[in-house]
Amino acid sequence: MIFEDPTIVQRAMESEGFQQLSPQLKVALFLGSMVFISSALVTLTAFTRIVIVLSFVRRALSTQEIPPTPVILGLSLFLTLFVMAPTFRAIENDAVGPYLDGTITGAEAWQSGSDALRAFMITQTRKSDLMLFVDLAGMEGLESPESTPMRVLVPAFVTSELKTAFIMGFCLYLPFVLIDLVVSVILMSLGMMMMPPVVISTPFKLLLFVLVDGWQLVVRALSLSFG
Q: How many whole angstroms separate alpha carbon 175 and alpha carbon 92?
């Protein structure tokens, strides 16, 4: 993996063979690396937490495929861009811009961009999750969290994001579960045991969600959860 050892990337970028490649081959290598963008979006940004929480909202409302999956993914993507804007701005100012201007090498740009992403992930990663992977990797002698290699930090970050997303999903489910329970009790007391409770409870869930301006609350909670 490219995160196994940053010196591998540095040697590759500074090698004469790489610098002497034709422009066409460099473009081909760049387009090939675009394949990893989807994986990087999921594992290195806020996308995981956001898309899971929004999926929990849809399931809690019992609305099947409404909102549609493309809408959930699109909203998750743009919320990710919104949350990650300071990090992306730092990458642009410290890595991409200077590299395009020719003031730094490719290896220096890679290091600057990695540092910006590392700072974001360390902020969002629980200490217990980070220590778990540090112990599994046998790297107990780390001087500080900032010196954690990406091959250890990335799985710790994703694990921490999954835990946070499931906690938020649990909190979202609670009021809707109460509505289901109340509707079920009422139907049983009326002797309508054959009537599926979800048929009656879904309109009440939608009404409650609209009255409290649910989407605004969810988006606000997601944005503030990243500090």
A: 42
The chain-wide mean pLDDT, for the chain, equals 79
- List Cβ neighbours of 131 (8 Å cut-off, separation of 6 or more): none
**Nearest 5°: CA angle at 79, between 109 and 51?**
105
Cα 48 from Cα 184, distance rounded (Å): 34
Q: Hey, what are 36's tokens?
A: 């990893």
- In the chain, where the domains are located: 6-55+78-225
Residue 77: closest CA among 18, 23, 17, 37: 37
pTM of the model: 0.76
Summarize pLDDT for 98-139 with one digit per residue, the tens: 777 777 777 777 777 788 888 888 888 888 888 888 888 777
Query: Is the Cβ–Cβ distance between 83 and 226 less than 8 Å?
Result: yes
**CA angle in degrees (0–180, nearest 5) for 150-225-81:** 65
Q: Is 144 left (phi over 0), alpha (psi -120 to 50) or beta?
A: beta
Q: What are phi and psi of 46, to 5 degrees?
A: -85, 5
Classify 1 as helix, strand or coil.
coil
Q: Please, are residues 50 and 79 in contact by the beta-carbon 8 Å criterion?
A: yes
Rounded Cα gap, residues 96 and 204, in angstroms: 50
C-alpha closest to that of 209 among 82, 48, 66: 66
Which residues in 159-182 are b (16+ Cβ under 10 Å) and which e?
A: bbbeebbeebbeebeeebeebbee
Helices (H) and strands (E) in the chain, counts: 13, 0
Residues in the chain: 227
